[in-house]
Amino acid sequence: MNESPSPSSPAAPRPIAAAAPAVTHYENFPVASWLCPPALRAPIAAIYHFARTADDIADEGDANAAQRIAQLQAYREELAHIAQGHAPAPQWQGVFAPLQAAIAQWQLPVQLLDDLLDAFMQDIGKTENTHTYANRAELLDYCRRSANPVGRLLLHLYGVQDATSLAQSDAICSALQLINFWQDLSVDIPRGRYYLTDADRAQHGVSLVAMQQRQDSLALRQLVMQQASWARELMNSGAPLVHRIPGRAGWELRLVVQGGLRILDKVEALQGRSLWERRTIGKADVPRMLWRSLWM
């Protein structure tokens, strides 16, 4: 639920490689929900629109890896440009005008926004070159930039900045990112995205080829179950943050935590078959999540 100076950028406007894709999906985290304090809905929506658009550049459409990197670099330069107070380029007006207002009003740490873009660019590079993650430390460093900034930006808006809260937020956000990985193995592996680390695979005797081909084996299933257990431990270590966030925002965080844990329930129920099946949360899961939220 992250801080630092804004990146440097030329003073004059620069051409942008492509206009922002339309943003129509809001599945990654709650945006300006009814539980969110009304005064924070605009900046939260601006942050989400910025991140979602960057994710679309990285993932959607027919552009090749080089084109996606170029577009993200232009997007990154535009972030630095508006952070210095310059008017956003017309192509990005819908994204950067609200974000610029949020940065000015709430003094948002621009480095955290830039970290998100750095993670998207890394993801493209690793996928294009079939690179894996060596160990958990390397994977968590990716989470530090791909997920943790969102939590830290929200904490900044809530006025919560103590070290314990930041650490717990990082644990929750990294856990959510890992949960997404283990939920989406059946989607990511065919796309060339490998988040099961070399060290963990070696521990279980699972080769890269076996993972790529999704060869069913007890070792591979045990590997996936181990990852789910790791994500659950990380989420539980951050969960006490719900008691440090005031009011309605704290209740929204309870539901975010319980949503992640419910996905883990479903991943674990598959007994390691996440490489072949993908489970999601449905309406039937909401009562259980609400009940667990009440008892946190």
Automatic annotation (TrEMBL):
Domain of life of the source: Bacteria
A Pfam cross-reference name: SQS_PSY
CDD domains to which the protein is assigned, alphabetical: Trans_IPPS_HH (cd00683)
Listed SUPFAM superfamilies: Terpenoid synthases
Record-given protein name: Squalene synthase HpnC
